């Protein structure tokens, strides 16, 4: 055991993995970042989470909180500190079957959540990847395959169990600790450690899934028409598209998901997408929802996906914005762009109801560069589109700093988030780099990370 981890309390022995342990190689890093923590603690229950926070504070060890390890900034590991890895807190329990209420522990992966809910004919819209953890996604937002029909993941959260920085366990919902409940839905990373969420699932067994590859016109019209159609389409339709360069032009790989139990209902909603550009491939199938976030996605995170990611929210992607987004891909920066549909149920929620205030935008645009392209290349490629964005989403930002904070939590929301982070964590034990722009207190750089390149 390393010197830094002296005097580990009895309640935690056996749950700590240190550099000499054979499991350390698989636990030290995140999806985007290789790191060297002094130890990784794997609590099996809430009492051990409490003990871990107390221990780290007594030993003055920086804490990194990890659920699935997919966070883009790499802040769910550190150098020289303690990682509290919740992967053993991964139960999914039905609380009330008729209303579809589930208790989901933060360390579960969304693939396992989908699998656990499938026998009930229920789903929780989460994200597009089964290996992403519940804790990071459900404290930031959750833009999933059914986002326009079900809303963000946080919009279906009915209660949370949080261990605060002083070791207190609090259950927060709309009536009890409403300020904490507000904070955790959008800005949870600085509030404490959420050990479990109560989430209301929606009825859905199968979904219509269309996969298309389309040539994207260099003047931006394909992107404009994609976003224009999605902004006013029936809310059963949600879609994502990856835009990537192919020689001097760009291709758009679209996955459109219809919350419908029959192809007869799904096909007409997808059809208008066939008219936005030259279609190179297309198929539409009716699939069980878990095939979108399958357990085949599960894998260890060992720093395998480096890069830089940022994003912007758009109410409208008009000619100029759509051209700027397309040029980010075809220009010298060679960014990879993802488009995600929003609107629908997301915009039914009042902007002040949660710490995710962006309730009028219709499209999320995510921009990434991967080595050998640098973060500076991303900035150059993204600058023109960034100037037209109206806010951004915390979970697709790999370089958290105060400028990103202002885009993510604008105006009154930002003031309330700051005030509440200070109230629940006065000593800054979990202080997000969004406030400081500094590397985490362990000295780990937060300047890397992003989602996977192409998904098909
Ligand atoms: C391949 C890939 C696909 C993605 N797809 C989507 C998508 O479709 N939709 C979408 O919305 N997002 C998506 N994301 C972004 C994702 O929501 C964030 O990266 C999220 O933070 C990952 O959650 P995690 O638990 O795996 O992360 P971790 O790396 O474990 O955590 C990230 C940060 O979240 C905070 N955190 C984690 N757990 C807790 C907790 N229990 N309590 C309090 N704070 C906590 C910590 O500050 C931590 O540093 C994707 C990311 C990747 C890499």
TrEMBL record:
Record keywords, A-Z: FAD, Flavoprotein, Oxidoreductase
Cofactor(s) demanded: FAD
GO molecular function: FAD binding; oxidoreductase activity
Pfam families: FAD_binding_4 (PF01565)
Stretches with biased composition (Polar residues): 437-449
InterPro entries found in the cross-reference section: FAD-bd_PCMH, FAD-bd_PCMH-like_sf, FAD-bd_PCMH_sub1, FAD-bd_PCMH_sub2, FAD-linked_Oxidoreductase, Oxid_FAD_bind_N
Keyword Coiled coil set for record: no
Keyword check for Flavoprotein: yes
Region (Disordered): 431-456
Residues covered by the FAD-binding PCMH-type domain: 33-204
Family, similarity comment: Belongs to the oxygen-dependent FAD-linked oxidoreductase family.
Protein name as annotated: FAD/FMN-containing dehydrogenase
Organism (species): Micromonospora cremea
Lineage: Bacteria, Bacillati, Actinomycetota, Actinomycetes, Micromonosporales
């Amino acid at each position: 055991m390393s010197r830094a981890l002296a005097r580990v309390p009895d309640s935690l022995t056996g749950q700590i993995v240190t550099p000499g342990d054979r499991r350390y190689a698989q636990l030290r890093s995140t999806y985007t970042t290789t790191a060297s923590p002094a130890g990784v603690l794997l609590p099996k229950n809430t009492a051990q989470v409490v003990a871990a926070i107390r221990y780290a504070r007594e030993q003055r060890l920086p804490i990194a909180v990890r659920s699935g390890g997919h966070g883009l900034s790499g802040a769910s590991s550190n150098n020289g500190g303690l990682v509290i890895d919740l992967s053993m807190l991964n139960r999914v329990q039905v609380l009330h079957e008729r209303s579809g209420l589930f208790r989901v522990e933060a360390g579960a992966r969304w693939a396992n959540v989908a699998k656990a809910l499938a026998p009930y004919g229920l789903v929780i819209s989460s994200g597009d990847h089964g290996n992403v953890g519940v804790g990071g996604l459900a404290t930031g937002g959750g833009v999933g395959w059914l986002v326009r029909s079900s809303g963000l993941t946080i919009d279906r959260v009915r209660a949370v169990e949080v261990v605060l920085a002083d070791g207190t366990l609090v259950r927060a919902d709309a009536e009890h600790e409403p300020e904490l409940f507000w904070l955790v839905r959008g800005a949870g990373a600085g509030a404490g450690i959420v050990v479990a969420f109560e989430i209301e699932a929606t009825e859905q067994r199968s979904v219509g899934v269309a996969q298309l590859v389309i040539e994207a016109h260099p003047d931006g019209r394909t992107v404009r028409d994609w976003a224009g159609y999605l902004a006013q389409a029936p809310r059963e339709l949600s879609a994502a598209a990856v835009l990537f360069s192919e020689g001097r032009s760009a291709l758009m790989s679209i996955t459109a998901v219809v919350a419908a139990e029959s192809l007869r209902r799904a096909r007409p909603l997808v059809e208008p997408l066939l008219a936005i550009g030259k279609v190179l491939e297309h198929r539409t199938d009716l699939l069980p929802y878990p095939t979108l976030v399958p357990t085949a996605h599960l894998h260890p995170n060992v720093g395998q996906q480096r890069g830089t990611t940022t994003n912007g929210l758009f109410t409208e992607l008009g000619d100029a914005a759509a051209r700027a987004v397309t040029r980010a891909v075809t220009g010298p920066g060679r960014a990879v762009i993802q488009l995600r549909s929003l609107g629908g149920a997301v915009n039914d929620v009042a902007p002040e109801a949660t710490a995710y205030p962006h309730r009028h935008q219709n499209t999320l645009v995510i921009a990434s560069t991967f080595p050998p392209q640098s973060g500076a290349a991303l900035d150059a490629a993204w600058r023109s589109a960034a100037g037209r964005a109206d806010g951004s989403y915390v979970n697709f930002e790999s370089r958290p700093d105060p400028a990103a904070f202002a885009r993510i939590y604008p105006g009154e929301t930002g003031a309330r988030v700051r005030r509440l982070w200070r109230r629940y964590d006065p000593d800054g034990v979990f202080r997000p780099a969004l406030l400081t722009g500094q590397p985490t207190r362990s000295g780990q750089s937060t300047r890397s990370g992003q989602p996977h390149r192409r998904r098909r």
